[in-house]
Amino acid sequence: MEKQKYRVRFLLLSVASILIFFGSFALGRYRISVSETVGILSDALIRLVSGNSLTLPESMRGWSIEAQTIVLNVRLPRIACAALVGAALSVAGASFQGMFRNPMVSPDLLGASTGAGFGASLAIFIGASYYTITFFAFLSGLAAVMLTYMISRLSRIKTTLALVLSGIVVGSLFQSGTSFIKLVADQNNQLPAITYWLMGSLSSVKNRDFLLAFGPILVGLVPIILLRWRINLLTVSESEARSMGIDTSKLRFAVIVCATLITSASVAISGMIGWIGLVIPHICRLLYGQDYRRLIPASAISGAAFLMLTDNLARTVATSEIPLGILTSLIGAPVFIALIVKGGSGNEA
Amino acid sequence: MKLEVKDLSFSYGLRSARPQSFGDQKVLNGVSFSAGDGEIIFFLGPNGVGKSTLFKCMLGFLKPQGGEVLINGKNALSYRRQDLSKILAYIPQSYSPVFNHTVLDSVLMGVTSQLGVFEMPGKEHVEKALEVMKELGIEHLSDRGSMKISGGERQLMLLARAMVQDASLFVMDEMAANLDFGNSFRVMQRVLQLRDKGYTMLISTHNPDHAFRYASRVIAMKDGELLADGKPEDVLTEEVMESLYSIDVAVNTVNVGKSQYKVCTPVF
């Protein structure tokens, strides 16, 4: 009966996510109905699959060119990126939490986000193009985590504690680098651009961004999904896991690499969006239990739905865009406080 | 299953994270013994005498400086982790999960070494786990959270996990140390039941009365060496106990009906 309960919840979650995806197209200053959205999207899909030789029949094409442009070039990349980044950060968070045996760990623990933030700031400072910024952010995020990893290997205490402490040090190093760039940046256009980027936003993403991030995120996501049963064994003590036949250092390394790849690629297109990797897995633990076989897919879908919803708020609540990072903090902080006060995570079964 | 420990020596190097006081002093010095099917061997000795280190060498976590551990004739260090886990299971003193996995999922973790890297436990593994849990009388806990059960139930859960792992030799580090009087009795009853099925258990303990009641053999350790090895009543004498713990000890026989029990008590 437990299984039945989870199955129903998965079904509801999936249906809700699909509704949120299509519903999100209807939001915005330019009114586009859900049926128009479905038409435009399926038309685009048919053209993409058939290599532009087929389209929807004329009788079904009742939308304007403006609507088509807005749906395909403005709203689609934004909604798709929100779903992708939300899913990615949630899965990375859940993986890191299992690996560090701590429900309060977030995906940027090892410095991926601050590293990416520094890379992006640097790129904006040297006046790089939009895609170079993304690329810089990605590389710098990876570099930060590699640095963290190497420092922890040098440490005499070869435990996860060494990794966490190195992560804090490397994070603050990159943080001060970012601060320095902000200090010397041109105050009229560079500084606002950096500040805005660091707050996290999807307002300027294009279809190419989605494709850019999709590859690395997929490369990181697939192994985690395949290895998700084994992540359970990282949550018990090191010696127990090893006695059960797991090569913990290899598994841990694989999870770190994948989760970092995911995080860096996400931050590269969306900027710094905090809290999702902490909040979504936590809620999923409450609803779907602690087993990573369910937790990973549940986190992915919930994270996608959550960020699509949050981004809808970000672009519709006020007349000007609200950076996503601000909204996710508003939601995330209370959840984190509840976590500290209760001192656990979804442990009431 | 045959376990042979031959002339095992181990010391924590100066460069390790251990307290400096250990220095290069040998934690294990020429330890030899062997164990076969259906034995329950209790290890007794003061704190820091090397019981845990000995267990870690057997499990292949530590590399001894001298001697070797042979499991079915093959050095423990030359096994692949995956293969060793099908012979040897480890049951820690206390299970402190961070996440509240269900009891069934916790037991299922034991089957992982029988799965491919990307494989999930299937129906047959769940059935196997439930069967083992039934044998240990904990099948009603399967959907409960592993954090929300009693210490005794948790130890039984770990026994079940070791059993689905297909191991036949269980290494238990002070498995009853954190249990209350009743729970430690209930867990030990299950241990006896497993011995009768041919499982071998190596258990470290600080409780000589447990050794009297449940051991088929007792090994007393002092200063990294074996002080005595044999039947409980031969090893757990007043002299050995006094030598181990440096306190005056009386070993007496208690008569309950027709049964006789040996007990050990400090004298002051």
- In DSSP terms, counting alpha (H) and pi (I) runs of 4 or more, how many helices of chain A? 14
Task: Give me the count of strands of chain B.
Answer: 12
Shape of chain B: globular
Report the helical percentage of chain A.
over 70%
Biggest interface, CB < 8 A: A-B, 35 and 42 residues
Q: What is the first-to-last residue Cα distance of chain A?
A: 14 Å
Q: Can you give the helix content of chain B as a percent range?
A: 25-40%
> How do the SSEs of chain A run, as a string of H and E?
HHHHHHHHHHHHHH
> Sheet with the most strands of chain A?
none
Describe the structure.
The complex is a heterodimer of chains A (349) and B (268). With 349 residues, chain A is mainly alpha-helical. Chain A has helices at 2-24, 34-49, 65-99, 112-125, 130-154, 160-184, 190-199, 207-226, 228-234, 238-243, 248-270, 276-288, 292-316, 324-342. In chain A, helix 8 (207-226) packs antiparallel against helix 11. The radius of gyration of chain A is 21 Å and the shape is globular. The two termini of chain A are 14 Å apart. With 268 residues, chain B is an alpha/beta fold. Chain B has 9 helices and 12 strands. Chain B has helices spanning 51-58, 81-84, 103-108, 123-135, 151-164, 181-196, 208-214, 232-235, 238-245, and strands at 3-10, 28-35, 40-44, 66-71, 74-75, 88-91, 169-172, 200-205, 217-222, 225-230, 249-256, 259-266. In chain B, the strands form 3 sheets. A 6-stranded mixed β-sheet of chain B has the order 6-7-8-3-9-10, sandwiched between helices. A 4-stranded antiparallel β-sheet of chain B has the order 2-1-4-5, covered by helices on one side. In chain B, helix 4 (123-135) crosses helix 5 (151-164) and helix 5 packs parallel to helix 6. The longest helix of chain B has 16 residues, at 181-196. The termini of chain B are far apart. The chains are: A mainly alpha (349), B alpha/beta (268). The A-B interface holds A 2, 98, 101-103, 156-157, 226-227, 229-230, 232-233, 235-237, 239-240, 242-247, 285, 289-291, 293, 344-349 and B 15, 17, 56, 59, 61, 81-86, 88-90, 92, 95-102, 105-106, 109-110, 112-113, 115, 117-121, 143-145, 147-148, 161, 165.
